[in-house]
What we know:
InterPro entries: Galactokinase, GalKase_N, GHMP_kinase_C_dom, GHMP_kinase_C_sf, GHMP_kinase_N_dom, GHMP_knse_ATP-bd_CS, Mevalonate/galactokinase, Ribosomal_Su5_D2-typ_SF. The mean pLDDT is 94. The chain has helices at residues 4-8, 79-93, 117-133, 139-154, 161-168, 211-225, 246-263, 269-285, 292-303, 330-343, and strands spanning 14-25, 35-51, 57-61, 66-70, 101-107, 173-178, 184-188, 194-199, 307-313, 320-325, 349-351. The longest helix is centred in the last third of the chain and has 18 residues, at 246-263. Strands 1, 2, 3, 4, 5, 6 and 7 form a 7-stranded mixed beta sheet that branches. Strands 9-10-8-11 form a 4-stranded antiparallel beta sheet. It starts with a helix and ends in a 10-residue tail after the last strand. The chain is globular and about 60 Å long. It contains 10 helices and 11 strands. By secondary structure, it is an alpha+beta fold. Helix 2 packs across helix 3 (117-133), helix 3 packs across helix 4 and helix 6 packs across helix 7 (246-263). The chain has 2 domains: 4-186, Ribosomal Protein S5, domain 2 (2-Layer Sandwich), CATH 3.30.230; 190-351, GHMP kinase, C-terminal domain (Alpha-Beta Plaits, 2-Layer Sandwich), CATH 3.30.70.890.
Amino acid sequence: MSSFETVFGGMPKVTAQAPGRVNLLGEHTDYNDGYVLPIAIEQKTSVSMGRNNRGEYALCSHELDRMVHFTLAEPPVEHFAAYVYGCLMEARASGIETGPLDIYVESDVPMGVGLSSSAALEVATLRALRALTGSSLDDLRIAQLAQHAEIEYAGVRCGIMDQMASSLAGTKSALFLDTRTLERRLVPLPPASAVLVLDSGVARTLAGSGYNQRRAECEEAALRLGVTSLRDVHDISKADTLPEPLRRRVRHVVSENVRVLRAASWASAKEFGALMNASHASLRDDYEVSIPELDRLVALLQAHPDVYGARLTGAGFGGACVALCKPDTLQPVARTVLRDYAGAGFNGRMLVPPSDGAWVG
């Protein structure tokens, strides 16, 4: 099994980690200056670094079994390396110079399922750079640099939710975040509830999906409505003057912001679950980012008597579903739902919940 030591012939100077996240409510609202409610997961990405004198950066991914060499003047062509390269460039623009590095990445954050493996990689990379150089970057600034790196160098016009969750959230409480002001507070899960995440078995890539198209549609809708962003639309009827699909895009964003605000105001498990169910319907019908596999998996979860509510999580177009369940029921719920999902011809899996009481209200 490879490690930094076996690949590069020495010990790393620093190692830093960052978690993935699951978003409980607030999908496709962050790039509209709206509200979100993510929670960190136990799975993490680890980035180890050491300086070298070879005149180029060497980046090794344990999971992908890939080694990439590049310089800051000649960026890597491999997509996974673009995230690291972007962080190096953003750090340099902030005055952090390192010279060539050996970089080793390993992660147990599932990729391609909507749990923000890219944000975990970015935040871990920037944390490692902070440790290596003694930089004064705080966790908020790290999240901002990570977002810029993904937009400018990975080609995903993401909001800041994923990076804020990876940099600032914990596994004990959700992070209620106003993505316009970056005001935030921790919100406990509803009493007598626990979080379950299931993978639909359909991977998705944001850069190649309809993600950027949805963002462009929201920007066009905001322009037509004469507002800075859809955050500033509070009356859904204002969208009635817009053509389709812009009217439905606005309806999702406005209603999703309301759902997050309600959930963050001490909703009961039953109320929280109903908000999750409504969120999925909106993502499916108004925002059109669901797929048949996600709809089937969510429907099976919603029909289970020990589930309060369920929805797709992440940007959609594949990936994972999140459910709010009764405590101590996660394993039996997962077994039953995945059995019926397989019976319908699909191949899903449980993304292992934490064992230390996290994700439990």
